[in-house]
Structure formats: structure tokens, C-alpha cells
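Action item from last week, closing it out:
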Amino acid sequence: MRHNKEPRVDTRNDDGSVLRATRLAATSVHGPIFGPLDLTLTPGTLCIVHGTSGSGRSALLLALAGRLRRVTGELLVAGHDAAFDTRAVLSLASVGRIGQYAAPDDRLTVGELIGERAVQDGIRLSQAVDRAEAIEDFLGYRIDRGALYKDLPAAEKTMLCAGLAMLRPAAVVVVDEADHDVPAHQVATLLATLQRLATMENNVVIVSASNANAAPVGAMRVHLAPTKLSRVHKIEEPPVAIDEATVAPEEVEPLDPDLEETVVAKVGEEGTEE
């Protein structure tokens, strides 16, 4: 099978990273949305932003893709400063799915979505088709081109969104709600596949999830705590963050009053869970 070879984008900052955020934060009229965040992602990395609904996951993904206003701090993507070279960052960061901001049309087939994305990204249809096949060959599966997006299993929807975002070379790929409606027993495989996708061209894949316990070793986890804490807690026990109510009781830990809003950890490092 013939595939067109695409020129790889220059994905490195001066320190060898693909993306580096320093004190990145966003606020609204209602208060803080996320941050401040310090994050460095090296080539071939999967980054999982996790937390409950309302913790700023989608907003952070938009910010890391250079598509959110009212952001403070510094964001460097492949050697370009988002504050001064916005156009370059927009071309280097590709959005697969983010809430209502960008999502595939449920009424379209996989083949039609590939064609639609080709038009959006300004590439030839034949080039997009070849590229989609190359991505699938690398990952070892094929999605039925005649299947409607709405009929795909949740994990396939996530992988399709990531693949569509890579139809043109991109240093950063973002996909929101990666584990939405994905059966619990499939989440680990899904995240491992997304991690493998990041190694195809040594870019970074950034996804949001409600839970990152199944993150593969080597993945970066960014935990966003909610800006408001639950007032409901067990008697004679410290209150817990809202998102802790989603895990089993024995996994709940007391809230540390000195804990930063954003916690970044690499899976497999000393002191982190695997």
C-alpha cells in the first residue's frame, strides 16, 4: 500500500521539549479556571489532564493548543511563543475534539469526516486518506469508513478524533473527554494506544479524562482540583475534594490545605501510582 510521505514538523523547543508551559493560568469573571501550571512535555509523550466536570479540563486543552484568550503565563510550542507567534502555534497544535468548540458531526461517516477534515486543513483528499491509513497501520487497526460516527464505540471515537487531528503534521494533538462512555475495562488499552500514537512522529498527545488511574507508565498526569470544595464529608474526617467522591471509599485521601490546585506527575516515577 502506498502512502505519501509528509514532512515532519519541527517539534522542539530549545530545551528539547515539544511544549513548555510556565505559570500558565486562566480566569473568568467568575474566578480562576485553572492554573497556575508548569508543564514540560517531551517528544512522544501522552499527557492526561484529569479532574471532575468544572475543573477546567477543556479550557486547559484549549489553552495548550493556543486557542484560549485571557491566558497568563508563557506557552512555548515547538520553539514558538504563543503570545507573540499565535499563527505558528495554531498551525502546530491540532484539535481533535473539545466539547462544543470542535466535535465531529454525528451524522457523517468516517470516510466523510476524513474528507471534511482534509478541507479544513487544506490538504488533498487523497493525501488525507493515505495519511489516515498510515496512522491506522502504525496502530494496527482499521475503522470502517462507512460507519457513522455516532455508531462507533466510545474508544473508537476517541482514536478517530486523534487520528483526524494528525491528518496534517502537528506537534501537539488535543482530544477532550478521552474516556467519556468508554467501558472501564477498555480505558487502559485506549490510553496505551494514545501513548503509542504520540511516538509515531514524536509529537505530544494531550487528552482530558475524568480519571487517570489507568494511565500507562511514562504518561504525564495533570490533576486539576475543582475551584470549590464539597461541603459534604464523613463525620470526624477531613473534607475531601469533589473529584475524590468518584473513587472507592478506601481510596479517598484527606484534602491537604496546602495542596496546589494543579498537580503534575509522571506515571512510574518514585512517589507516583502506576
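Closing note: The mean pLDDT is 85.
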